[in-house]
Amino acid sequence: MEFRTPVPIQPQEPKIAHSSKVLLIGSCFVENIGKKLEYFKFPNLLNPFGILFHPEAILNLLKRVKSNHVFTEADIFYHNEAWHSYEAHSDLNSVEKEVILEQLNAAVQETSQFLRSATHVIITPGTAWGYRLKESGEMVANCHKIPQQNFSKELTNAQNALIEAATIVNELNPEAQIIFTVSPVRHLKDGFMENQLSKAKLITAVQEIVAIKANCTYFPAYEIMMDELRDYRFYAEDMVHPNLTAVNYIWQKFQEAWIASEASAVMKEVDTIQKGLLHRPFNEASEAHQNFRRDLQQKIEKLEEKLPHIRF
After folding, report:
1. Tell me: the pLDDT tens digits for 57-109?
2. Contact between 139 and 132 (Cβ < 8 Å)
3. Alpha helices of 68-215 — where are they, by DSSP H?
4. Is 289 found in the same domain as 175?
5. Range of the domain at 268
6. Dihedral angle sign, alpha carbons of residues 293, 266, 217, 229
7. Do 242 and 199 share a structural domain?
8. Which residues contact 161 (CB under 8 A, 6 or more apart)?
9. Which residues contact 268 (CB under 8 A, 6 or more apart)?
10. Which molecular function terms from Gene Ontology are attached (predicted)?
11. Helix (H, G, I), strand (E, B) or coil at 213
C-alpha cells in the first residue's frame, strides 16, 4: 500500500552538470539548494544581495544588474549604528559606509558577469506580501527593524514583477534556462489565511509565466513539502522551515529532474572528499591519520586535475 501521494517529477533539459553555471536568487529555501550545489562543487552564485523574499526585490536586483547601477550614499541609510540598504538583506550591513557600498557594487558587478554566462537561473520567491516605504514609495527587500509605521503592507501582483525579472534574464542571456520554484517556508507572521493567499498568488503567477515563456520551467518544491511531506516531523523546531530531512528529500527530487546523470560519479567523489575534510582524528600525529591525509590529498589532486574549476 502507498501511504503518501508522491508529486510526479519529470526529467528536465538542459541538465545541470559540473560544466554548468547556476545563479540562484530568492528566499531562504533557495539557499538550501544553493548550498547543496556548493557542497557538490557545481559552479554557482547564491543570493548576491542576500536572501530576497519578494518578487519585486528580486526584480530590483536584476534591474540594478541590467543598468550596471553604482550605489552611492544616496542609496543607503544609517540606523542602529550601522549602514543599511533597503534593497539588500542585513547580511550586507556594515558599520562602515564604504564597506557596504563596496559590497553592494561588487555584488552588482559579480552578478552581471556571472549572469551573462550562466546556464541556469533559479528564482524562488517566498511571499507576495510586501512592505512599501511611505517616504519614497519603494517596495523594500528588508525593513531592517525600522518602525513599522514607516511602511505600508500590501499584497502585490507577483506576476508582473516575475515576468519582468525573466525578461531581464532573457535580455542579458538568451540561452539561460530559468527555473522557478516557490518557497515551501510558511510566512505565518502574515497570518495563516494570508500565507495561503500569498502562496496561491506566487504559484499562479509562475504557472502563467511558464505557459508563455519557452525557457521557463517550474520545480514543485512547495507541492513536495505540502503533499509528500505533510507531517510535522519534516519541519524544524519552529514548525515553519523544512528540516534537514525535508531539504535532503527535495534536493533528491531536484537532482532527479535537473542534475545530469554523468555528474553523479563526480558528486560521489566530492562527497567522499568533503566528509574526509570534516573528519576529526583522535590523534593527528598517528601514522594512520597521516596515511589518511595523504590518500585524501591524492583524491583532491586527481579530481581537481580532471575538473580544474573545482577547488577544495
Report:
1. 999 999 999 999 999 999 999 999 999 999 999 999 999 999 999 999 999 99
2. yes
3. 97-117, 158-172, 192-212
4. no
5. 262-312
6. negative
7. yes
8. 55, 56, 58, 59
9. none
10. hydrolase activity, acting on ester bonds
11. coil
The length of the chain, given as a count of residues: 312
Cell 559606509 found at: 97
**Does residue 165 share a domain with residue 146?**
yes
Residues 6+ apart with CB under 8 A from 155: 128, 129, 130, 194, 197, 198, 201
DSSP character at residue 189:
G
Can you tell me the distance from the alpha carbon of 149 to that of 133, in angstroms, rounded to the nearest whole number? 9
**Quick check: pTM over 0.85?**
yes
Cell of 134: 511611505
User: In sequence order, what are the residues at sequence separation of 6 or more whose Cβ sits closer than 8 angstroms to the Cβ of residue 231?
Assistant: none
Query: Which cell is 151 given?
Result: 511602511
Instruction: Confirm whether 92 is domain-assigned.
Output: yes
Cα 65-66-68 angle, rounded to 5 deg? 60
